[in-house]
Design goal:
single chain; alpha+beta; Pnp Oxidase, Chain A; 7-stranded antiparallel beta sheet; 3 helices
């Protein structure tokens, strides 16, 4: 069960980073907005379907890509690790956009938008 401190930290407005792996195994790290469900089971990142991060996740295949999302605020930090897949169905995209709007702001219109959906397997830092 996540602590109240962890829940609050992921509700505050912070940008994070998403780390995916390139075909050669090297890390690709980019700043992103991240949302996490209430149970800390699923984290979501919205992006364009042609972005490098989406392509890296898709390249991993049906089993999903190993990824990590991290946010830092001074000495407080949290990393969520897990397997990611790309979702492009309208329902998943709408849900992720609504979650993003609640935490950050209404996202700009992007007809190529997809969701990188991360099944959280491990939490590091704040718990």
């Amino acid at each position: 069960m996540p602590s109240d401190e962890l829940i609050e930290f992921w509700r505050e407005r912070h940008l994070g980073t998403l780390t995916t792996l390139r075909a050669d195994g090297s890390p690709h790290v980019v700043p992103v907005g991240v949302t996490v469900d209430e149970a800390f089971e699923v984290a979501r990142v919205i992006c364009s379907g042609g972005s490098v991060k989406a392509r890296n996740v898709r390249a991993a295949g049906a089993g999903g890509a190993r990824v990590a999302v991290t946010q830092v605020d001074g000495r407080r930090w949290s990393t969520l690790e897990g397997r990611a897949v790309v979702r492009d169905d309208p329902e998943s995209v709408r849900d992720a956009e609504a979650r993003y709007a609640e935490r950050y702001r209404v996202p700009r219109v992007n007809p190529r938008r997809v969701v990188i959906e991360i099944a959280v397997e491990r939490r590091l830092g704040l718990r």
